[in-house]
Specification:
The protein is of the alpha/beta class and about 350 residues long. Helix content is about 25%, strand content about 25%.
């Protein structure tokens, strides 16, 4: 037996199956011993677990307290067991939301480009431990702060638009009654470029946000007319000249946005991570690879890419863009840029 075989013999196999509309083969990976129930039962069979995770499990329940899932003592990143950790590293996620009709979605949908707290919660749980501090420099209507409140993290959110800041306060009061009381959520109203100056160096454990996608919300296309204008909902962030979405030149917008994330890198602890949720978009006939442009711009601020997750927005409607004259994509995914501030040597 070679070293690779010896290593493999000490691991349990797990398969993750996709629930997308099209068939995708299962993804196989291995889990280190000690992180899930140990043992090799010849009568083990494959059992379906919520969220599409399949694990080898005995036919009869004989699991004792000693074999329950545990957090590896070497894990300094989060509070996840191996079974919880590994599915989060798959590079394609399905967007999870409450649905437009859910009572707790009514405040969220008042924002023109909301990011679901269920998705941001996955990032918060993966890149922090309980009681740590998370920063969102473009907090909108408070999805990040809601996730922090429910998952036991301290949250700091900065929001330029006063109406959205008020909605964040309202949302926290209305939707986090089951939150832990040993953590605090702070909303700072105003320009992120100003508020970030008041946050000390390396005091933040994790930065997560979805920034403006330049001026794309100014467009009144099929989607805006049907889903926002027709329902009396706001379509953009407003006319404040400090709003990055009101910058006319794309390169200037990118420069200003990168400088804000540069300040976020200053307040981020050494070795800490930053997750930025963005989408590519079209400017007239040109396709803008926003995610790639931003990643490149952040190199100058010492942030290093660690991965790229595609967030599949499977519930979005399809519109007849370009028909019947030219190809125009229905963009049904966002990108999550996973960056890290390198550890000091």
């Amino acid at each position: 037996m070679n070293d690779a075989d010896a290593l493999a013999s000490n691991f349990w196999a797990i398969s993750v199956f996709s629930r997308s509309a099209v068939y995708e083969p299962p993804t196989h990976y291995v889990v280190p011993p000690g992180s899930i129930a140990r043992g090799r039962n010849p009568d083990a069979k494959l059992a379906i677990v919520k969220d599409g995770v399949h694990v080898a499990r005995p036919k009869k329940s004989v699991i004792s307290d000693e074999t329950l899932p545990t957090v590896d003592p070497r894990n300094q990143l989060n509070d996840l067991t191996a079974k919880e950790w590994i599915p989060e590293t798959i590079s394609v996620w399905n967007q999870r939301g409450l649905g437009a009709g859910h009572p707790d979605a009514q405040i969220e949908r008042q924002h023109p480009a909301p990011f679901s707290f269920t998705d941001v919660g996955r990032l918060v749980r993966f890149f922090t431990k309980s009681g740590q501090t998370v920063l969102d420099p473009f907090v909108g209507v408070g999805s990040t702060l809601k996730a922090c409140a429910l998952d036991g993290r301290n949250g700091i959110g900065i929001e330029l638009n006063p109406e959205f800041a008020k909605l964040s306060h309202k949302r926290l009061a209305a939707e986090t009654d089951q939150a832990r009381h040993d953590v605090a959520q702070t909303i700072l109203e105003g320009d992120a470029r100003v508020h970030l100056r008041g946050i000390g160096d390396e005091t933040i454990d994790f930065v997560v946000t979805s920034p403006p996608y330049w001026s794309i919300l100014k467009k009144e296309d099929h989607k805006a007319k049907q889903e926002r204008i027709g329902k009396g909902l706001v379509t953009d962030y407003g006319s404040d000249p400090r709003d990055l979405a009101n910058i006319g030149d794309y390169n200037e917008f990118l420069k200003e946005l990168a400088s804000i994330f540069g300040e976020c890198a200053r307040v981020l602890k050494s070795g800490g991570h930053m997750a930025i949720i963005v989408s590519d978009f079209r400017e007239k006939s040109k396709y803008i690879m926003f995610h790639a442009d931003l990643a490149q711009a952040l190199v100058d601020y010492g942030l290093e890419m660690r991965g790229l997750t595609s967030l599949y927005q499977r519930h979005k409607k399809v519109f007849p863009y370009g028909y019947p004259y030219s190809y125009v994509p229905n963009i049904h995914n966002q990108f999550i840029l996973i960056l890290q501030k390198p550890k000091r040597k």
